[in-house]
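hey m, so remember when u said the tokens were messed up on ur end? i reran from scratch. heres the input so u can diff it against urs
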Amino acid sequence: MAVDVDTGEYRWHYQICPAEQWDCTATADMTLATVELEGKARKVLMQAPKNGFFYVLDRATGEFLSAEKIAKVTWAERIDAKTGRPIENPGIRYNGKPGMFEMWPGPTGAHSWQPQAYSPQTGLVYVPIMELPALIGEGQEGGGEVSAGMGVTLIPEVELPGGHKSYLKAWNPATQAEAWRVDLPGTWPGGVMASAGGLVWQGQMDGKFVARDAKTGKELWSFKTESPIVGAPITYRVNGRQYVTVLTGAGGQGAGMQTLGNAMYRTDYRLPAAS
């Protein structure tokens, strides 16, 4: 939703999943940039929320410009180019239907809390992506599922082919196409930062802190820390010298470090923190 900062008046809104039933929240960070679309410079807002699509909107008017899948998606076929509304797949509305629906992405999302980054040098957005499916269906009585008593049965992590993977994806918002991707360890990729030196910085679940070429994704430098890295790096300058800093540690429980795909990266928190 857009609000006039001076008056507080409502300006526009865009809803990614109307009447959603799947924990399809849109709380991921949003990126503002000027992107050339069809030969015209547009001031846009870009977001890759949980639901597996990458959205480009006109940030002044809220006009829907484009959206394409950035991960595996089974809840919708596509986003209609004219209306900006999702074309849902059969079975996604599970009320009154038997069985469970295989849902990609699951409730942890294709892109969750960890920040994406944008480089005006390359025109690419760098997004930490998860492939984590779930099963969802109408509520069962007497079950011990996560959502017992809520009218829905949700198994947030299931073993399915192609699941429990993560990537760093470089995405071209002008063409809505992948520029490159890098496979990452575990299933909870760290936040991303793009710097003016043509680099993309990201920590990994195996404790490795990496700088990559922003154009190609090639690893150029790395440093091994003592624990997983989830937070996004920052950069700053003191007395003419530039520094890059990142917090180490896996963060919260549940959908983060305790996800099944991260079992081999469990941390002994008696180790000292590093920065």
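this time it looks ok to me. Residues 67 and 264 are 35 Å apart (CA to CA). if urs says something different then somethings off w ur setup not the seq
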